[in-house]
Amino acid sequence: MMMVDSLTNWLNAPRNILSVGLSPIQSLASIPSSIGRYFTSTLTSEPDLQIAYDNLRNEYFKLKSETLLLRALEEENQSLRDLLAASERLKEKITLAELMDVNLDRDNHRVSVGRGIRDGVYVGQAVIDDQGVIGQVTEVMPLSSIIVLITDPTHALPVQVERNGLRTVVNGTGSVSLLRVPYLNENSDIIVGDILISSGMGGRFPNGYPVAVVNDVEIIEDEAFIRVTASPIAKLDRSNHVLLLSRQSRADAKKRVEQLISGDE
Fold this sequence. Notes:
By secondary structure, the chain is an alpha+beta fold. Helix content is 36%, strand content 28%. The model has no long low-confidence stretch (mean pLDDT 78).
């Protein structure tokens, strides 16, 4: 039969008929192996899918954190742009400083900045942000300085009402959102909403810088003075950078630095 099959075509027809008849049997015989390959593929691909899922999840959270960082950087850049815009309007020499530490407890409202003697910073130097007056320098070190905020209970700042020029002072209360305006009698022309600006009296703060807005005026019977409170305009608890103002010439600033280094003052 092998010789006949190899030398003739006589067995082709029977072979085709036989293959058709055996096809269902071959399909049934292949089912176990197909099922085995399916489970094997599933078991081997499941760890790969888990790894891919974990990688995608990690990438998602990484991108999410980068988005948050970009948002913070955008806010900081906007703050710096606001400060730059404010500095362009100033007549005084200005120095940009970044906050290093903040102390806002009840009896002590002070911050430290990364500017000091080497940068020409001096005691009494006025400090603002892009909104208004922050405070003044009270202590200077070679690489840093301490600033007392206008809300510190020991701080007093000469101001005037922008609307009519009425002169007064604002005192800190120990609250970062509240200032007190003392020594005004009931005939004083001051109303809620009045803007208080620096008057320039005392020589520490240049005149004309926004300080606070009046939020309450209360007349108390049998008291000599009315009770007036105001809210600071500057972002005292939100600023990351401040501007140090100076009316000193470069020669005066250099002389001042030499005095501080030599210990003459």
